[in-house]
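Figure 3 (text version): structure tokens given as input.
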């Protein structure tokens, strides 16, 4: 078990110990009387997923956010990865992304019954991390120790910048940024396609600035 596994396990054990230490049964029953403890501002939560479903869950939740315009209540969906390099049989270096917390997805969200229902009923999600699967937000110290916010997509691109498209059907093409949507983490880039300017919507991570 590595350091990251220890962080998750310690978080879950602390929640269990905190719950078990309550001596007043009425307080315990009141705590579990609903599925959620509503919050006024987004907090970080952790969900369990089936093994290998982390990216599918992330994509599904992001699609729901888009379809239902829930950007203000589910603000971030993160599957932390680290980049490693492997040597292929031909001797070349190959970039490989590895999940730091396999089986977990992190969400920054305002918790209420509606957002709980959306996330909990997403295909591939097994439960929230918390006592009795009741969502409990990460503390600020836990967010820092796990480095969650360091994995958020960022964008230093500005309108009018010329960017290189790194992946997708227009990979290795360049274009001019015409729109930036910070909440969706997307940009609209005009790409020259068969002699015509074609607007293409891309995620922040799909582009890089050409200097």
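Below: residues designed for each position.
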């Amino acid at each position: 078990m590595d350091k990251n596994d220890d962080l998750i396990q310690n978080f879950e054990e602390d929640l269990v110990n905190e719950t078990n230490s309550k001596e007043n049964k009425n307080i315990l029953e009141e705590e579990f009387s609903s599925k959620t403890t509503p919050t006024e501002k987004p907090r970080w939560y952790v969900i369990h997923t089936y093994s290998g479903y982390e990216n599918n869950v992330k994509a599904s939740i992001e699609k729901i956010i888009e379809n239902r315009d829930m950007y203000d209540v589910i603000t971030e969906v993160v599957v932390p990865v680290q980049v490693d390099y492997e040597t292929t049989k031909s001797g070349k270096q190959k970039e490989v992304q590895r999940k730091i917390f396999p089986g977990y997805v992190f969400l920054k969200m305002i918790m209420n019954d509606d957002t709980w229902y959306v996330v909990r009923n997403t295909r591939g999600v097994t439960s929230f991390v918390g006592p009795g699967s009741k969502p409990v937000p990460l503390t600020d110290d836990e967010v820092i120790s796990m480095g969650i916010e360091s994995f958020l997509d960022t964008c230093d691109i500005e309108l009018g910048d010329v960017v290189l498209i790194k992946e997708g059907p227009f990979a290795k093409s360049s274009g001019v940024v015409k729109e930036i949507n910070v909440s969706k983490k997307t940009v609209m880039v005009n790409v020259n396609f068969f002699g015509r300017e074609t607007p293409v919507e891309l995620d922040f991570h799909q582009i890089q600035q050409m200097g």
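Residues 18-33 have pLDDT under 50 and may be disordered.
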